[in-house]
Amino acid sequence: GTPYYFRVMAAVRNGNIERGLLFFHQALEEDELTRGPVTSGPAWSFVTLDYDNRYQAALQIVQSRANWLEQRLNAYKASGRGSLSLADFRGRVLNKAGLSEATFSFTHAVFRSEILLSLPVEFRSSSFASQIELDTLFSFSRIAEVWLKTQQPPANRHERQLGGQLIRFFKSQGWGLSEKDLSAIGSADFELTLTALLDGQQGPLLQAYLSAEGDLILIYILRNAAGHAPTSSNVVHTRYSDLLERMLFGLFVIGERLFP
Predict the structure, then answer these.
(1) CA distance 254 to 145
(2) What spatial distance separates the first Cα and last Cα of the chain, rounded to whole Å?
(3) Is residue 136 a contact partner of residue 113, using CB atoms and an 8 Å limit?
């Protein structure tokens, strides 16, 4: 897989993350043909944002994205939601056996998010830009669903869906939101609900929108909105950074509480 590795570096440095990760995926598949399942080495260190491995040519790229993610983890810890460190997140979630495809998707979404946030606001002011932003958030919501199903194997048909998985998780945490409540939130006005969740407004269905419970509800409504049809949203455009942070908080909550 070595030739693919250096093609990855060239692609990523030129801003083509899709091309780069496709090469990395191929590099790992080539390595697995000769060495079996790969859980170490430069290619895997790149995908899992492991900057502790100093023997990788792409160390500077990995360090930059790991720092970006660690800033979000620090904000997560400062919010009082948990104490997950980047090392724990990598070891318990990103390195978990059987989840390499989800790990690739997560890293891809991290790169895309960083690129979007680095663009001047005026370049993200169109309705199409909000669709791209929503698509990136959708990627994180699909990853959340995979992680939940991995750690909570569906016990019935309802738990094959994200809503059923969230209700099961809420119950395991002693949170009071019911299936009926979640359904009502999902069918409410999309823009108003996003704003309420972000601003911590009180409502008839939730006691505290700014809690970890609210982070997961946000994942649920964004998953539904982006999964059914191309959607542009003024709230997504104007508050993409806030939405992204809350989405990541939700993923961190799942990682910390479901992955031992």
Answers:
(1) 10
(2) 32
(3) yes
223 touches 142 (CB < 8 A): yes
Residue 16 corresponds to which tokens in the numbers above? 């083509």
Yes or no: say if 231 and 224 are a contact pair by the CB < 8 Å rule.
no
- Residue among 94, 43, 60, 101 at smallest CA distance from 251: 94
Cβ within 8 Å of residue 192, ≥6 positions away: none
Residue 143: pLDDT band with limits 50, 70, 90:
very high
The residue ranking higher by pLDDT, 219 or 202, is 219
| Look-up of token digits 């990853």 | 143
Q: How many CA atoms lie within 13 A of 156 on its CB side?
A: 5
The helix-helix angle for 240-258 and 190-199 (nearest 10°) equals 70
C-beta pairs of 191-197 under 8 Å, 24+ apart in sequence: 191/233, 191/234, 191/235, 193/221, 194/218, 194/221, 194/233, 194/235, 194/236, 194/239, 194/243, 195/235, 197/221, 197/246
Contact between 137 and 236 under an 8 Å Cβ cutoff? The reply is: yes
Model confidence pLDDT, tens digit, residues 243-254: 999 999 999 999
**99: how many CB neighbours lie within 10 A of its CB?**
18
165-178 per-position pLDDT tens digit: 999 999 999 887 78
